[in-house]
């Protein structure tokens, strides 16, 4: 198995959630690391994938909202500074599609989740290094991870939706 590096300048961990039942709040985690080992990333089914995300690196382009998300009402970043994902199984669904299943831990609660993952191809960057691109997506119920804060709206509904869409975009290269 070979180790692979994430090109942080061409990768992102994004999320989105419904706001006031009518729009979406989008954000990113700006600081994360990954340990990726695979025989050949052109066949992701050989991979072991582990992510460590700095909870306090959340960025939704609103300092007040970010501070609230870091508080005990949501992520409690002081007590739970890291969100982790450890793959347990990678299944090839087609020539460029995979189901990457693993244990996601948020706020000390671990649940099995599956990312629908697409291999976007490989190429050679301007410095002659081989790179591989992937995009992965899953939806989690935030309540299942202890992220239960909410507020009722006068017009009906709630301020924050329960479903969080997580989108991971990766460009990786040999270590």
Order of helices and strands: EEEEEEHEEEEE
Which secondary-structure class do the elements indicate? mainly beta
Helix content: under 10%
Instruction: Please indicate the percent range of residues in DSSP E strands (runs of 2 or more).
Output: over 45%
Number of helices: 1
Mean pLDDT reading: 92
Radius of gyration: 17 Å
- Biggest pleated-sheet summary: 8 strands, antiparallel, barrel
Describe the strand arrangement of the main beta sheet, using strand numbers. 1-4-5-7-8-9-10-11
Gap between N and C termini, in Å?
Answer: 11 Å
The dominant shape is elongated
Count the beta strands: 11
Unreliable stretches covering 5 or more consecutive residues: none
If you had to describe this structure to a student in words, what would you say it looks like?
The chain is mostly beta strands. The protein is built from one helix and eleven strands. An eight-stranded antiparallel barrel has the order 1-4-5-7-8-9-10-11. Strand 8 (97-106) and strand 9 form a beta hairpin. The protein is elongated. The relative contact order is 0.22. The mean pLDDT is 92.
Q: Care to give the gist of this entry?
A:
This protein has 175 residues and is mainly β. It contains one helix and eleven strands.
Index terms:
11 strands; eight-stranded antiparallel barrel; 175 residues; 1 helix; mainly beta
Task: Set down the secondary structure blueprint.
Elements lengths: L1 E5 L5 E8 L3 E7 L2 E7 L9 E7 L3 E2 L3 H8 L11 E11 L4 E10 L2 E16 L5 E12 L18 E15 L1
Antiparallel strand pairs: 1-4, 1-11, 2-3, 2-11, 3-6, 4-5, 5-7, 7-8, 8-9, 9-10, 10-11
């Amino acid at each position: 198995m070979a180790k692979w590096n994430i090109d942080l300048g061409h990768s992102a961990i994004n999320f989105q959630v419904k706001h006031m039942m009518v729009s979406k709040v989008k954000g990113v985690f700006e600081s994360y690391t990954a340990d990726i080992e695979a025989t050949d990333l052109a066949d992701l089914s050989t991979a072991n994938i582990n992510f460590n995300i700095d909870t306090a690196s959340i960025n939704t382009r609103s300092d007040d909202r970010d501070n609230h998300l870091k508080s005990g009402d949501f992520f409690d970043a002081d007590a739970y500074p890291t969100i982790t994902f450890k793959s347990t199984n990678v299944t090839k669904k087609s020539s460029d599609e995979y189901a990457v299943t693993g244990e996601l831990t948020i706020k000390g609660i671990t649940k099995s989740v599956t990312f629908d993952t697409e291999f976007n191809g490989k190429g050679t960057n301007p410095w002659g290094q081989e790179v591989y691109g992937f995009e992965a997506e899953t939806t989690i119920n935030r309540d299942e991870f202890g992220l239960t804060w909410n507020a009722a709206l006068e017009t009906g509904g709630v301020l924050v939706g329960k479903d969080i869409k997580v989108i991971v975009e990766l460009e990786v290269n040999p270590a």
